[in-house]
Amino acid sequence: MPHTVVIGAGFAGLAAACHLARGGARVTVVERHDQAGGRARTWSQDGFLFDMGPSWYWMPDLFERFFRTFGREVPDLYDLRRLDPSYRVVWGDVGAATGGLPRSGSPAPSMPPVAPEAPVWDIPAGLPALRDLFEGVEPGAGAQLDRFIAETKYIYEAAFSDYLFRPSLSFLEFVDPRLVLELSRMRMLRSMATYARSFFRNERLARLVEWPVLFLGAPATRTSAMYGLMAYADMALGTWYPLGGMHRVIEAMVRVAEELDVEFRFHTPVERILVEEGRAVGVRTASGETIRADAVLASADYHHVEQVLLDPPHRQYSPRYWEGRVMSPSSLLYYLGIDGDLGALPHHTLFFDRDLDTHMEAVYTHPSWPREPLFYACAPSVTDPTVAPEACSNVFLLIPLAPGLEDSDEAREQVFQGVMQRLEAHVGRPLRDRIRVKRSYAMRDFEADYGAFKGNAYGMANTLMQTGPLKPKLRSSKVRGLYFAGQLTVPGPGMPPSLVSGELAARVLLEELAAHAPDKGGGPR
Ligand SMILES: Cc1cc2nc3c(=O)[nH]c(=O)nc-3n(C[C@H](O)[C@H](O)[C@H](O)COP(=O)(O)OP(=O)(O)OC[C@H]3O[C@@H](n4cnc5c(N)ncnc54)[C@H](O)[C@@H]3O)c2cc1C
């Protein structure tokens, strides 16, 4: 039985480990931290339990698909709830004066579930309610939403039933006349921003359908309309939450892996990938231990694996290559434990009440600490009392920042005060004098904990020039038996794509092990 070492126990590493073990490999997962999860780890203090990273559970079908592969059903593993409202958007007066004109022949609008000019919209779960919202804001926009959903559903289904599961080792995988025809018919090479505005004149509606691409690490102006599939995931498939926290998903994956006899070595940083005669033969850990293997699958950050864990002759990409990549933003995060309640704050709130372009410029064009950032507040204790002590609230704040920005406590605190002032104004009560637990996390923490290049949070941005075969490859061209998975390779950032990445890397590795098995006439390649 061939032995594979998997570096990293995040979504990609765990997915890879499960697929490899199911494919007949003996698997050892080597993880630097004392728990699985990677960017989806937990941190707890004084009875508050924080998910450190992901908080939006989207694309439930992909999680179902993963667990079903191993004979498990999601409801047997964790208790998933659909959130309604899906989330709240705080607009302030952004986009308020751009209400659309009625389209000719539009039916009379039904009663809007939100006032078009209101500074706050609660976005309802389910397409019928969402359609009413759109129609109430811009006459005719309900029918436009139907069209938008039909197109993005098509892309979503094509991607997740097929294209996303191609390992992108070569452009030839995508030489498919049907794909080219469909992409050009729907003009998918346009930006998501242009695509959104081809459906909706009301600025808020356009923003509502384009914001989900921010998960992919670039603004809608720099992301292909192909990623409209994210809006389909949001609007049609819904926003979910596993009771107990996002980490429940990680725990379920670890359980599946252990049932497949995967061995976990926590608190074991890998210091070197061992290469002999051009082939990966194992790893050396920080304690000096050598773990020999027939292949290595590295799911830690690609840049860290190549530039730190491999000797220079074995690296495929130069420092110049990495400098030329568009990284996804980093983030300033705050984990807050608060005495008492939060007023009527829902589980997810997006503060889009300041100028988007100014913030995007501070993230992408002229990296700097934003003065008045857009931000996101997550309050899981609204849904789940287990993540905070009784009569207390759990709050997570996320402020996107430029990767590589100079990090300082003072800069963090200045942003924190501004953001908290806006949050307090929104909930109509003071919060800062009730804080019991407070921890910040930003660029230097991402670097220290994950070796993240420039302290990025979500890997590489899914710009058109960094999509599919244009991403760092999941098989090394320099070292035989070395494979990569995770959010810096295909398909990209996010929990569901990381699951897919682990599966793809495991599949390519297993195919090669099988092709070179001794009974096929060869040893390991
Ligand atoms: C703040 C934040 C919010 C997010 N929100 C969402 C969300 O709401 N929804 C969503 O779908 N996605 C979200 N994401 C993205 C998602 O969390 C990631 O894309 C995904 O978790 C990445 O998984 P991964 O396995 O590729 O990488 P990681 O989770 O980073 O896993 C890599 C693992 O490798 C380990 N490692 C690194 N170096 C070594 C070494 N030398 N030796 C041993 N082990 C090593 C690390 O400790 C880590 O456990 C968010 C991410 C962040 C940071």
Describe the structure.
The protein is of the alpha/beta class and 525 residues long. The protein folds into three domains: 3-78 and 244-324 and 459-520, FAD/NAD(P)-binding domain, CATH 3.50.50; 96-238, no CATH class; 339-450, no CATH class. It has 16 helices and 19 strands. The strands form five sheets. It has a seven-stranded mixed β-sheet. A five-stranded parallel β-sheet has the order 9-2-1-13-19, with helices on one face. A three-stranded antiparallel β-sheet has the order 10-11-12, covered by helices on one side. A hairpin with a 4-residue loop joins strand 11 (279-285) and strand 12 (290-292). Helix 5 (141-161) crosses helix 9. The longest helix is centred in the first third of the chain and has 21 residues, at 141-161. The chain is globular and about 70 Å long. The model is unreliable at 98-111 and 521-525 (pLDDT under 50). The structure holds flavin-adenine dinucleotide (FAD).
List the helices and strands and how they pair.
Layout: E1 3-7, H1 11-22, E2 26-30, E3 42-45, E4 48-51, H2 60-69, H3 74-77, E5 80-82, E6 87-90, E7 120-123, H4 127-137, H5 141-161, H6 177-185, H7 192-197, H8 203-210, H9 229-237, E8 240-242, H10 247-259, E9 263-265, E10 270-276, E11 279-285, E12 290-292, E13 295-298, H11 302-309, H12 319-323, E14 330-339, E15 348-351, H13 356-365, E16 375-378, E17 392-401, H14 409-427, E18 435-441, H15 443-450, E19 482-484, H16 495-515
Parallel strand pairs: 1-2, 1-13, 2-9, 6-15, 13-19
Antiparallel strand pairs: 3-4, 5-8, 6-7, 10-11, 11-12, 14-17, 14-18, 15-16, 16-17
This protein binds flavin-adenine dinucleotide.
Flavin-adenine dinucleotide (FAD) binds next to helix 1, strand 14 and helix 16.
